[in-house]
Amino acid sequence: MSELTAVKLAQQQREVSVAEFFERNRHLLGFDNKRKALLTVVKEACDNSLDATEEARVLPEINVEIIDLGNDKFRIIVEDNGPGIVKKQIPNVFGKLLYGSKFHSMKMSRGQQGIGISASCLYAQLTTGRPLRVISKISPKHPAVYMEIGIDTKNNRAQVFKEEEKEWKKEHGTRIELDIEGSYQKGEQSVDVYLKETAIVNPHATILYTNPKAEQLIFPRATDLLPVQPKEIKPHPYGVEHGILMKMLQTTESRTLQSFLTNDFSRVGPGTAKEICQNARLLPNSKPSELTHPQIEQLMEGIKNTKIIAPPADCISPIGAELLEKGLKKEVNSEFYATSTRSPEVYRGIPFIIEAGIAYGGEQAGDQSIRLLRFANRVPLLYQQSSCATFKAITGMNWRQYGLSQSQGALPIGPVTVVVHLASVWPPFTSEAKEAIAHYPEIIKEMRLALQDCGRKLSSYINKKKRVGEAQQRISIFENYIPEVAGFLEALTGEKKEKTIEKMRQMLSKNKELIQQYKEAHEVTKREAEEKEDQIELKGAIEYDE
Amino acid sequence: MSELTAVKLAQQQREVSVAEFFERNRHLLGFDNKRKALLTVVKEACDNSLDATEEARVLPEINVEIIDLGNDKFRIIVEDNGPGIVKKQIPNVFGKLLYGSKFHSMKMSRGQQGIGISASCLYAQLTTGRPLRVISKISPKHPAVYMEIGIDTKNNRAQVFKEEEKEWKKEHGTRIELDIEGSYQKGEQSVDVYLKETAIVNPHATILYTNPKAEQLIFPRATDLLPVQPKEIKPHPYGVEHGILMKMLQTTESRTLQSFLTNDFSRVGPGTAKEICQNARLLPNSKPSELTHPQIEQLMEGIKNTKIIAPPADCISPIGAELLEKGLKKEVNSEFYATSTRSPEVYRGIPFIIEAGIAYGGEQAGDQSIRLLRFANRVPLLYQQSSCATFKAITGMNWRQYGLSQSQGALPIGPVTVVVHLASVWPPFTSEAKEAIAHYPEIIKEMRLALQDCGRKLSSYINKKKRVGEAQQRISIFENYIPEVAGFLEALTGEKKEKTIEKMRQMLSKNKELIQQYKEAHEVTKREAEEKEDQIELKGAIEYDE
Q1: 3-state class of A269 per DSSP?
Q2: N or C: which end of chain A has fewer CB within 10 A?
Q3: Is residue B25 a contact partner of residue B41, using CB atoms and an 8 Å limit?
Q4: Is the ipTM of this complex over 0.90?
Q5: Which residues 24-43 on chain A approach chain B with CB closer than 8 angstroms?
Q6: Has residue A262 got a pLDDT over 90?
Q7: Does B441 touch chain A (CB under 8 A)?
Q8: pTM for the predicted model, two decimal places
């Protein structure tokens, strides 16, 4: 039997196209239910628009429109003022999975793998059979190009059903139109919330949004300054893996190990390269492609045992503690805010920065789990909270020391909103739908440190508040008994009751002053913070330049 | 600026190979930390061995060995007595992602997309730089083939470093050897637990396991009968999507709509096909490839409005309520068991069956969250519990009505183990790592129904237990007061005290009998269940046939 089976099995074996794969597994891309599908399409289109405008140094103006076509069908239109797409590339960008400009560059961006928008096109084709319609213009000198695009899934290739030139008033930009099966519902995890949170962490963007109820929402830009443009970098030696190093050694243009180390990595100067070679017991003039397996092992050990400075931060553009606090204030009305931005760190050779913030008290309910806002590269994450590294970092901490209640392994309970932002050249997500951050220990550790920093500020605030409250209570209780105490004293010592009362009141008022000082100091801190806020737009941003 | 940007962007745009994609995103495949990586490699190899032996109708004998190489490196060896792999296919099976026999067939199996084992090879290459070693033999007449295989990620192609014939005593089978970076730790989510649970739901397999501490564990087979071999089926019309239907219409060999419906779908006979055409207002002799977009819409409506019988169950091989209960009994020592197997249902045209079981009381702790065992196509799922459809189904139910305590949105608290098994032609997972089942409403609904069925049995048991307990308590309290009551009665009515006592005792003993009956009935149910159990191996399984 056996031989036949092996032969029979061999006949069935064949290649699976990546488009077929995702057609079957569309839940991997965020299309597992109708409501999420609607969000995913809007999200992928907006991410692309924000990336493209940022790349072109244009202040983004994005117009999102969702039209209810009835029978669970929706038309989604997203239009931007980005640089447009050259004609030849339009079919690939929208009609081919795993095609894009961002995968092979080490630079922070919202999009990554060139899957999102073509997957949306695939989903539209699957659920309504209608192609994607795109109109794009790259400059006033060129006419706009209009195309209708589908995907040949068996070969993962674009099918262009129609192509023509069109008049379009815009100077440059892209507008896409997709018909999909979806479901619209307000509230948590909705398109409305996604766009609102996107506006918070992208204060340089203007977003116009018409929802399926034909209500128009406008999120105007809060600043005319574009975020700093992140630079493209080379990998950092720390955390580079055996296989990647092997591949780099084989494909490098450098002729010696010494020049390979300085040219192909960031933060490795000639001195550091020499030290790595020494620690690896390898000659600096070895030919990279000729290193043997054990020699590569040595090289990895050598890197591990050499002190190399942290990767440069200019490949990442964090929101910044101040802007993050400002965003938090827009979102949550509370009495106390604390934020923290960590220094860049590395996971698997890839730099990242963690930022965190806490808003305490105010109008927030005190008897429920804290609210968690998650962002990765300025994109709000609305799904899969409990699978996210942020969740793991928070539930793994002891929040009781910061004055909140918490059962083991759960989110703490209290009137608190926590924000965590991961900015990275390559944020690792748990799925292509980019809903949750994967559990890399380096990332979780940084999240914890950032949150602990905020937590300490919070607990000192809570403790101060408690101390002031207690002192105040003691004083007012004591105040009530002054006449009685004075009366006893008169009976015992003959000291006049009125005089004693007078003295005691004086003592108390000193204490009250102290409390007042406490309170005022707190007010000043708050005022200062607010003043600082009005100025932050000048920092961490550059001038708009056409 | 704009035109230049578009051109510059276009220059950066290029294709990403699926191997490059997964090399960067290896956490998507279950390689996000060292401990999980060890489990994932063992799991992918064992899944393949179990699938191959089942396909070849061989009783599986699988030998798993993990050797600690020091410095967080491990050698994993998995050997089976399966049909082997023909020489020509070996490089593709292990050295090319998205290559396999299972993707294009509608049949229940553990593997799906042809990613798992080649991803393990990729991970080995990444972390230790060492190729996969495989030896395979398809029959006693052929020599065994030995190969060393790596992956050229840029082109997603196998690299064969060595190839030779070898002597191998086995008649047929495959043995692979991989060196990876990993970490070994016992307990939950460990290789040990995975193999134990695998043995529970695959009672026809013998698994020998040597862990890194050089301890040998043997899971002998509990039955010599192979599970029923699932048949390959055609898609069911319900839930087929517009895009898929469009593709099927374009590529079918049938000449008329009528024959297309009967030939290309399961459960559609000539009568049903006619009815569909009528409901769709389409002529049965329309040419499939010529249907227009609105006509396809009509056809979909027509399918929706026609009553079509559920898909055949023979494409799925569930564990069966009895075997599931038996497995549960092996795992958990408790006082009450209930299991339930639902009828086949369909999501997106794909048939599936849900099975569930509950074990209550016994040695289980009553003050903790219930324990949840999850399986998909007889494979234990150990990670991402809270992202799983099973979790959503359980937390969305009201368990208080079944006598357990539960806070909103959480797992219930109580001395309970819950098992859920999804058997399907294509189980939808939330990620390629196949850790959790995606949230399809149809699947969650079936899970809920199966669990409610078990829940009802549980609550009637708990209530009966409670009633018996209460009645017993009432009787024994009353019994203590009989002499006093009889004394009062004598004083009031003159009725002799001894006589009253006698009568009252008689009354009570009747009640006691009733309670005894209750208890005995329960014992009988239990005994019957146990007897039934001894016979079940004869059902739902066929004879072993070489």
Answers
A1: coil
A2: C
A3: no
A4: no
A5: 24-25, 27-28, 32-33
A6: yes
A7: yes
A8: 0.78
